[in-house]
Amino acid sequence: MSMYQKLRGLHLATALFSLVFLLAYGISAVELAHRKWFTHPEQSTVQTRKLAPGITDARVLVREWRGELESIENSPGVLKFRVTTSLGTKHEVAYSITTGETTVKTTTISFLTTLAWIHVSHGIWAFAAALVSLALLTLGATGIYLWFHNHNERWIGGVLVAAEVVITAALIISMRGG
Amino acid sequence: MLLRLVKKLHTYAGLLTFLNLAVYGVVGLSIPFLRQSRTAPPVITYRNFTVPPNLTDRQVAEQICSLLHLSLATPVNQAAIQHDAANNLFLDFWHANGRDQVTVLEKERRLRIETTRNSLGLYLYTLHETTAAFHSSDWRMQLWADYNEFAMWCLLGMIASGFAMFLVSRARSRLAQISLATGCCLFAGLYFWTR
Q1: Most CB atoms within 10 A, among A34, A166, B45, B130?
Q2: Does one domain contain both A53 and A12?
């Protein structure tokens, strides 16, 4: 197998492996850049649960839900707190300390907004972003090789890529200077 | 014929946005480490400045922006114009290179400038998220923003054209099928696990 065939296989496999991630980042980039173009509907459901009474620490109760404990409000006899998952689903919990009666309002966001959360999320999604970024850089490097191998398009492609690199690099360096 | 055209578009879109896509890649790779890198500690300097009479706060802010060569912070955002506890004009300029907080000490006829410079990672992070929706008075930033918008759409175009080429010419490749299935499963697994 020639180098060209190997790199073409790598380009294809990398692109297909990262396809859904790249699509998610690409669509969410449009969503983040042009928020006014889209609506951001939310859906809420309310559920009641019975938990063990007498708990006064929200950190103990929060183990019932996955996500980040974001706010705690301690009013007499009632413990209220909010838990948000990595992808924006919110659980607003009101827990009665005396009876253990718990009301949970769960708010879910639209698919598009979820993609935007993926784009900016930390934790495991930041590592997913790093993996996809590595894939993107691999696609760029192999793509350049594949294009260069095609002799008919070297000249016009060379002019385009040189112009792009010079202009954008000049902008990046010049703006870094202030 | 159509496939050749799609391949050409795919190639040229990639060549025309090569460096922008590389910036996306570098930023994405650095995200897990950005929290640790953050910024250098602020540097405080003083500079002589006499406020001309009968200028509005905005006009003063614009003069200071020009004096300090903060064109990346223009047009001056309304939120940047504030007053501190002693009622001095306080200007909070955010830009791609970091932040300059300027206190206008009118009686002393000088400026107190607190400069926080972004690390290279944060600078590139800001650039990668700057698109045509952003309006800057600095022509370099506006040009970058417009070009970055173009790169964002090109990326979507390359995803679509690449997938179309796969369907037409390489759909039977076992390696391609396994790669696609693995990526889809990984995404779906992460999505449902973290939702």
Answers
A1: B130
A2: no
Tokens of A84: 């948000």
Q: What is the mean pLDDT of residues B162-176?
A: 94
Q: What is the ipTM of this complex?
A: 0.89
Determine the Cα–Cα distance for residues B108 and B139; give it in Å rounded to an integer: 35
A101 and A128 co-located in one domain: no
Distance of CA B88 to the CA centre of its chain: 31
Burial (Cβ within 10 Å: 0-12, 13-18, ≥19) of residue B164: middle
Q: Where are the beta strands (DSSP E) in B13-86?
A: 43-48, 81-83
Whether residue A16 and residue B176 make contact (CB cut-off 8 A), yes or no, is yes
Among the partner-chain residues A9, A137, A175, the one whose CB lies closest to the CB of B22 is: A137
Q: With bands split at pLDDT 50, 70 and 90, how would you rate the model's confidence at B89? A: very high
Domain co-membership, A144 together with A160: yes
Is B94 in the A-facing interface, judged by CB distances under 8 Å?
A: no
